[in-house]
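User: Can you predict the 3D structure for this chain?
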Amino acid sequence: MKSYTIEWGPHSLELGNKTLIMGIVNVTPDSFSDGGFFFDPDAAVDQGQKLANDGADILDIGGESTRPFSEEVSAEEEIRRVVPVIERLSKRVSIPISVDTTKAVVARHAIEAGASIINDTSAFRFDDELPDVAVKYGVPVILMHMKGTPK
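Assistant: Here is the predicted structure, written as structure tokens:
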């Protein structure tokens, strides 16, 4: 299998030789994957550190649930949830940190706090300014597919 390496800032990822592991930390009270166990910032940071220690290649920090029929969270609330966690984790781990968001303003704050990848579950459908943030900061983007939209 052909492989290639993407490099940005202090990070690089080799794609194609092995499956990369993304450790997910949802800083939400209503996540369908972890039941809100990491809504507390200290718990979220500890979990992120554990995932990195256990071999995750990327940490993904999210502040808004994308489970079906979930309530939308304001950008301000999403920033309040993810930025402190990203700030602390970026000082403790050397692997890239992605921010799971569909909002340009959240991505901007997260990158300034230490995130280095944007993980957009809407594939740029919800915020036309999100691609501009990726270009401005020179960060890679993960585009996801979502069936339908949250509530």
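Residues 75-92 form the longest helix (18 residues). The chain is about 30% helix and 20% strand.
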